[in-house]
Design goal:
11 strands, alpha/beta, six-stranded antiparallel beta sheet, 5 helices, Elongation Factor Tu (Ef-tu), domain 3, 2 domains, binds flavin-adenine dinucleotide, Rossmann fold
Length: 213
Amino acid sequence: MDETAVTVRGVRSVGPDTVAVEFESPDGFAAEPGQFVQVFAEFEGEREGRFYTLSSPDVVDTFELTVGVDPEGTLGPWLADRQSGDEVAMTGPFGDDYYEGEDEVVVLAGGPGVGPAVAVGARALADGADVTVIYEDDRPVHEDRLAALANAGAHVVFVTDDVAGAVQSLTGRAAGVAFVYGFAEFCEAAVEALDVAGFDVDAAKVESFGPAP
Ligand SMILES: Cc1cc2nc3c(=O)[nH]c(=O)nc-3n(C[C@H](O)[C@H](O)[C@H](O)COP(=O)(O)OP(=O)(O)OC[C@H]3O[C@@H](n4cnc5c(N)ncnc54)[C@H](O)[C@@H]3O)c2cc1C
């Protein structure tokens, strides 16, 4: 979409220093889980833009972004302060590393990468796919969504570090398409672990959020 003022439906805490912001989908908005939008706001006369990845499995009526909030940051704290009815300028969707109906998906998520992980996981499960989610963080975010995925048959692993060890412990899943979401350091470690475990890393869909704060 060209730049559009999108209405906030609600903001809720989904774990430590993390919020999920739900927006009303503008007419004609189409996006897949794993794609991202660019959000804009003005701070002391300076316009800032940041990217945020969809954390809802679809964009029917509403869509959601999951935002890790560092109090020293700019857009993160601003988004966390939004209220229902506020309008937020954004463009998108962008990105090629999204779910495209694969039968077997292995999603590796670090930190706020859990947003696209729960989105891809839920959509793929609804399509009847075999789903694995490995999520690395200090403390878990979106625990209810992860539990719902596990209850619906996904293989869900939470680790506080050592994503490589978690990937190594996967057996018989290297034929799946790997999806990797998180800050750059996490993505590098995750891709290396996938390579060691025999995944086709050239076919992996890797979306780096840039350098970690
Ligand atoms: C493709 C892509 C997808 C992304 N998807 C997501 C997503 O789904 N969810 C998500 O949470 N993020 C995502 N990001 C990251 C996001 O775009 C932002 O980089 C992130 O939210 C930080 O933005 P900010 O404006 O809050 O912080 P910034 O102002 O950019 O600051 C970054 C960090 O610098 C430090 N800092 C800044 N100002 C100060 C200060 N005055 N004093 C001390 N330290 C300071 C803080 O540690 C802060 O966290 C994505 C990025 C990319 C490239």
